[in-house]
């Protein structure tokens, strides 16, 4: 197995879990780590929220029990607030902290944060400098290809990040304008890799082990980041690692329905342990809907998910799934 260093952290060169708001909670991160994700990023935390004392935001910076591979991600447009938030993350024993300069959502970019920082490179540089000076841990940055097709500036931004003290860069090879549509332009990852000396993490369109291998081979990136494809399918990281270790590059067989229900149950138990049954089951609805991809009649089951309020409700749904889909396999795991 090959490894890469992000600052002073040695990372297995397989795949890492992308930061996704509303998705990468403690339960999702634990499962992905157990299945082989070499790093797991948390939900992005607002530096303004931290500055003004929001407890829920501060919790986003905290690793759960045994989360050695957890990386908190922060966002904002105020260098002082970002530095303050980074110091708090360091106090929670983070080894790496990531700055978000790639989120495309209007509620983030509208405040001048996330992907909007691609339009204000001097401010982005100030933020990186402030965070680097504030902490002793490694600082990384996640960017996009650019704001839109007429403003592709990933290479220039990557150079700026490196010069400002970042020890690694993740590039999601879509523009902000694309959001999550169309195809990622892998050539941009290659261009960024050729432009900087620090490690580059490629992100975009990896849904299986073969595509992960393709990104490594085609772009020369140092790590691959997987996002939406791992939602409802944390075993994807095991599939990637197994594929890399196999001489014949074979895919693992699909999970049986019983195996996937067991995985869903484990996810819900972790959520309940972390947040209590009431909150956990509300948040589990979206997760379960993703686990149901590929099952015959999934739309009807997703409708039932929207009504889950207790673990008992979930167990009843599991019974329905088993009775109506005996001996089924889930085949079409996609984005």
What report would you give on this structure?
This protein has 335 residues and is α/β, with parallel strands linked by helices. It has two domains: 3-245, TIM Barrel (Alpha-Beta Barrel), CATH 3.20.20.70; 257-324, Non-ribosomal Peptide Synthetase Peptidyl Carrier Protein, Chain A. Helix content is 44%, strand content 15%. The chain has helices spanning 26-34, 47-51, 55-59, 79-91, 106-109, 121-134, 154-163, 186-195, 209-219, 236-245, 257-275, 277-291, 298-305, 311-324; strands at residues 3-6, 9-12, 16-17, 40-41, 45-46, 70-71, 73-75, 96-101, 138-146, 168-175, 200-203, 223-226.
Spell out the key features of this protein.
globular; TIM Barrel; 335 residues; Non-ribosomal Peptide Synthetase Peptidyl Carrier Protein, Chain A; disordered C terminus; 2 domains; 15% strand; 14 helices
Write the layout of secondary structure elements.
Layout: E1 3-6, E2 9-12, E3 16-17, H1 26-34, E4 40-41, E5 45-46, H2 47-51, H3 55-59, E6 70-71, E7 73-75, H4 79-91, E8 96-101, H5 106-109, H6 121-134, E9 138-146, H7 154-163, E10 168-175, H8 186-195, E11 200-203, H9 209-219, E12 223-226, H10 236-245, H11 257-275, H12 277-291, H13 298-305, H14 311-324
Parallel strand pairs: 3-12, 4-6, 5-7, 7-8, 8-9, 9-10, 10-11, 11-12
Antiparallel strand pairs: 1-2
């Amino acid at each position: 197995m090959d490894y890469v260093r992000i600052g002073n952290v040695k990372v297995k060169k397989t795949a890492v879990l992308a930061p996704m708001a509303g998705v990468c909670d403690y339960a999702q991160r634990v499962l992905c780590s157990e299945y082989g994700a070499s790093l797991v990023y948390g939900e992005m935390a607002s530096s303004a929220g931290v500055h003004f004392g929001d407890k829920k935001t501060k919790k986003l910076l905290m690793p759960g029990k045994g989360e050695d591979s957890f990386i908190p991600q922060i966002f904002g447009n105020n260098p002082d607030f970002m530095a303050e938030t980074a110091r708090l993350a360091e106090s929670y024993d983070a080894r790496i902290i990531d700055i978000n300069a790639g989120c495309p959502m209007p509620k983030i970019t509208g405040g001048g944060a996330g992907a909007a920082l691609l339009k204000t490179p001097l401010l982005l540089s100030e933020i990186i400098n402030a965070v680097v000076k504030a902490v002793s841990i490694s600082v990384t940055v996640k960017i996009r290809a650019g704001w839109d097709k007429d403003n592709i500036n990933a290479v220039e931004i990557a150079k700026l990040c490196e010069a400002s003290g970042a020890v690694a860069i993740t590039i999601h090879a879509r523009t902000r304008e694309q959001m999550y549509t169309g195809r990622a332009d892998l050539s941009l990852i290659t261009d960024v890799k050729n432009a900087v000396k620090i490690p580059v993490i490629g992100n975009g369109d990896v849904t299986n082990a073969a595509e992960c291998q393709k990104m490594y081979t085609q772009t020369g990136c140092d790590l691959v980041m997987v996002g939406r494809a791992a939602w409802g399918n944390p075993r994807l990281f095991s599939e990637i690692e197994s594929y890399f270790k196999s001489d014949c590059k074979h895919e693992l067989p699909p999970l049986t329905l019983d195996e996937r229900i067991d995985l869903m149950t484990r996810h819900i138990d972790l959520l309940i342990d972390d947040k209590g049954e009431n909150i956990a089951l509300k948040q589990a609805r979206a997760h379960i809907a993703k686990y149901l991809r590929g099952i015959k009649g999934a739309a009807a089951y997703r409708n039932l998910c929207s009504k889950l309020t207790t673990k008992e409700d979930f167990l009843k749904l599991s019974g329905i799934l088993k009775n109506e889909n005996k001996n089924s396999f889930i085949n079409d795991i996609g984005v």
